Automatic annotation (TrEMBL):
InterPro entries: Bacilysin_H2HPP_isomerase, Cupin_2, KdgF, RmlC-like_jellyroll, RmlC_Cupin_sf
Gene3D superfamilies: Jelly Rolls
Organism expressing this protein natively: Lachnospira hominis (ex Liu et al. 2021)
Record protein name field: Cupin domain-containing protein
Signal sequence coordinates: none
Domain Cupin type-2: 34-95
Length: 107
């Protein structure tokens, strides 16, 4: 399956945050999340396993109460049902991969 980024329409999430759903199957989903400086991915948790790659920018991630600053080229892992959130320190993009896919994102 091919999915061209230029053809994907972003959807609004929190203020200053948009999401593009890229390729997915029942077991796996990849999304590109764009952040303006200062915007936040509010604290939440979900059953899905999540790995995030920092494609651009700088972010402060908190995962299970531990906070670290990550930059372009870094990655983070969010286990199932562990609370996490992010603040964008420098405008950027994240690539999120979920297992299984996020049905809630398709609504």
């Amino acid at each position: 399956m091919f999915r061209f980024n230029k053809d994907v329409i972003p959807t609004d999430c929190e203020p200053g945050v948009t999401r593009k759903i890229l390729c997915y199957s029942d077991d796996l989903m990849m999304c590109e999340i764009s952040f303006k400086k200062g915007s936040k991915g509010n604290f939440h948790k979900h059953e899905h396993l999540q790995i995030t790659y920092i494609a651009e920018g700088s972010f402060e991630f908190t995962i299970g109460g531990e906070t670290k600053i990550v930059n372009k080229g870094d990655s983070v892992y969010m286990p199932s049902n562990v609370e996490h959130g992010v603040t964008c320190l420098e405008e950027g993009k994240l690539v999120d991969v979920f297992n299984p896919m996020r049905q809630d994102f398709l609504k």
